[in-house]
Amino acid sequence: MDSVINLSRKEQVIRKAAELFREKGYAASSMRDLAQKLGIEAASLYSHIKSKEEILHQLCFDMAAEFRKSLDAVEKQKGPASEKLKNGIIGHIQVMAKDLTASAVFMNEHRHLSQPHLRDFLLLRINYINRFKAIIDEGVKNGEFKEHIDRKLAVMTLFSSLNWMPMWYDPNSTIVPTSLGQQLADMLVTGLRK
Amino acid sequence: MDSVINLSRKEQVIRKAAELFREKGYAASSMRDLAQKLGIEAASLYSHIKSKEEILHQLCFDMAAEFRKSLDAVEKQKGPASEKLKNGIIGHIQVMAKDLTASAVFMNEHRHLSQPHLRDFLLLRINYINRFKAIIDEGVKNGEFKEHIDRKLAVMTLFSSLNWMPMWYDPNSTIVPTSLGQQLADMLVTGLRK
DNA sequence: GTGCGAACCTAACGAGTGTTCAGTAATAGA
DNA sequence: TCTATTACTGAACACTCGTTAGGTTCGCAC
Hints:
2 copies of one chain form a homodimer. Chain A has a single domain (52-190), classed as Tetracycline Repressor, domain 2 (Orthogonal Bundle), CATH 1.10.357. Chain A has 9 helices and no strands. Chain A has helices at 2-24, 31-38, 52-76, 81-98, 100-108, 117-141, 151-163, 165-168, 177-192. The interface between A and B is medium-sized, with 32 and 32 residues. The structure holds a DNA duplex.
């Protein structure tokens, strides 16, 4: 139907935009650049999207929803905090690996969202981080983790490691995302263990 | 003398530019924005700098030189690889903490350098990373570190953690940079140890 | 064959971009 | 007092920006 075709074309636009934003950054990417990538004129883009920012908005909030979903599943699990933390890390990596381009945009370009979208985005982000912090707290309380660790430092180090992954991970590499997540989780969780 | 006053004013311009670039990104920062921050007109900036990119160039390459210097000192030390790695991490953190603003620009905005400066910058970066890789190799060879670790993964995780620090570290916080470096080094090195 | 909607076009808008240029006021050294 | 230098200015240049208006083409449904 029309809406399917429409969505499909719109998604093409958004995917190409994600590639462009990743390469050059949002602010340095022009609508004419994007149009050229698609083989059309800049004005034609506006048949599919409302504005440049709408593209960024969709990219950022779609990724945020994926991360949320992944963590939802982990929190339902029973078991030690270290296992939950590991699975949280693995899930995060898998979500990123599913779309490295969008992940890079999500991470580096979200600041170009205008208000109030930026505020909304940052709230989602803080919420996500706090849920990881709670898992670490749980591990500290039940004696799995060192009790003298700085929780903010720990959780920020964690996210730093995870969020830079799209910068250096080669999707054609021999390391598959699952094993990557496993290894990363090992490295990071071991650092916390007593 | 003239040159001192000139340098001083030029440095003021560059410092304010660093703040601006950090907040809004290089591409989204205009010379008129920068001028306004300094209370002058945009045209007046060109009495002090040759171009917008010259500012970015100076910021990026000055930081690169600082990182290099710090690692030079570490490499001269004798002792176990884990100690060298720790000191490398602590040094890196201290260089960043000395100028968080410039560090953030160094990390996030270097890609807006034009050629051949971008190529030069990336070469410096690869070199720096490889020197850390060599320390890890040393630790694997002499049995300090797990031998099954993926070196690329380890070193990239390391840099990810370090390089995001300017994003969340609050210079008014109670954690002083030295202790921050110490804790970070502990966390990351423990993950590698046998 | 008529109508419709998706996809695209050309042309243009007002605003903002980095940068240049000629000129001015202030200050310091001779 | 004259001179040179520094810091700055307003005006302008040649672009580029995101976006809009109005219109064309094409294929499908009835």
